[in-house]
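Internal QA ticket QA-208
Title: Verify multi-chain structure generation after dependency bump
Assignee: T.L.

Test input:
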Amino acid sequence: MKTFRAALALLLCLALMAAFILAMLSGEFDMSVGDVGHILASHLGFGDGTSPRMHDIIVWRIRVPRLLLAAMTGMAMAVSGAVYQGCFRNPLVEPYILGVSSGASCGAALAIVFPALLPNGQLSAFLGGMAAVLISFFLARSRGETPPVTLILSGIIVGSLFSAVLGIMKYLASDVELREITFWMMGGFYYANWHDVLVTSCTVLPCLAALAALSWKLNLLSLGDEEARSLGIHPDGLRILFIVLATLAASICVSVAGIIAWVGLMMPHAARMMFGPDNRWVIPGSAMLGAVYMLLCDTLARTLTGTEIPIAIITSIVGAPYLLWLLRAKGRELYGS
Amino acid sequence: MAHDMTATFFPGPTRKTVSSGETPSFLTFHQGREQGLVDKMRHLFSSRLDDVRSAPPSPEYALDIRSLSFSYGRKNVLQDVSLVVRPGQICGLLGPNGSGKSTLFRCCMGFLHPEKGHIHVHGVNIAHMKPSELARHVAYVPQEHKQPFPFVVRDMVLMGRSPHMEGWFRIGRTDRDAAEQAMKRIGITALADTACNQLSGGQRQLVLIARAMAQQTPLILLDEPTSALDFSNQLAVWKVLREVAEQGVAILVCCHDPNHILWFCDTAAVLSGGRIFSSGPVHTTVTEDILQHIYGPECVRISTENMDMVCPRRP
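Actual output:
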């Protein structure tokens, strides 16, 4: 069992590398493996720096940050989905369903329209996302229980509330701001740059590392409050810690890449199919799967047509039927109890 | 009627006090010849009872609950509940719905903090313990229920080791060994790699008991362990519980079937309206009078040479 899972994990690492190489090579501008390798090597300090300037800009200033950002976003969305599912004991939730995406985008839009009030886009995205998930949770909670369907409904309500606030922001925004909000809302990595990569990796990667380290406690928490407590953890405090870490990771990604739905639902499920429900495997597994999936979707978004398709459209086209299938095939098991 | 009598159990003979008002019907036979005896006993034991109440907690008892009171807002749920369980004993907790059994359990697990009274486990007061510390003293086996994530049996049992894991919850050799040991003792080693949702209800209950064993606590609390099981699974669970008790673990089990308590428990406590109605060795506690008091006059207890049984009265 264990060797099987280790082999699967290794396979996932290889898949991630393959996806990286594929994404690196594909695009409007054709480049050979040798060119790309040469440029990467010269930036990492081994090469002679003789590549054409055009190639250098495309690889180092456009593709590399974009792919890193896409991979990290995929990881963050998938892991936060897995964490929400565990700590709400509900296999159907993810950042988008819980309203985190709407909350974070509302926060980010506030920062665009009122830069004087909220100078930091990432921070206000995090606050918006945090507010959304906490409101959804406490709306759904009654007598110490959070029924799965109620949680989903309250997430939808909170999401639409924040979307309405976002509508007001758009109404108030100037032409330039409106354009900025709209582009960013569609979700995508067009404007990825090294600054975004730096900000994201400094916040998202530590969050993911902490979540992976806490994964055994997530197993306990997913048994329910009473059992978790009888096994020696403090469920309320721990749940808040998990929510803060997962929301921070997801909100930062929303603030750089816009709303990207369903990844947080599909990837943890796929990881559970491969590794079983133990979160010590599910969290790293869904991080890898999320990165691979996001790289592939982004590559599709860039290359499918002459112009770019917003990546959120691709993830939704794949993700919505997946949720439908999940409800039809396993619905009774998921919300019947 | 139950409210004007208190009964407190301490190890040794049972003490019953009729405080005021009319005598409960089931005690009427005490009047006359036995009334004097009751008075004598009360006199004899009252001093000893006071000693027990004020004495420092003895590590001799695995569980020692002293005059515990709890209320949700104005509603008194537990009043002056005292109960002890010795190592190696199974104590059955009997009582109608809403009598305060779950609240008593929640107090013992530290979910609720009692207003008055103390709970000691092997002489250690559990109030204000951190959850991780408490989980090294008390294990809890919840009612059989479905989980959203079907962990495999080995992981489920390993979770019982969590309070013993250090730091970032590293799982060590000792933890794995303890989990294997627990599965072996309960006899579910063959199921180790099976997902919990593929087990029968009885097997799931055994897994939860194995998890409590792996937790290596001196006290295990079980909440209606057999309520959802068929007869053979019920017997299997009780057999395992007897074996667990043989190893020196104290068990407090809340159970709705008086027969199970008569057949499988060493001591019993009857909870009614938030008070201990009677408690002590099982055969003197689960009597026909007491059963009729809590379950109505339809109850009879039949005793044969080697078996007691509670059943409905024949029409």
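Spot checks passed. The CA atoms of residues 79 and 275 of chain B lie 5 Å apart.
Status: verified.
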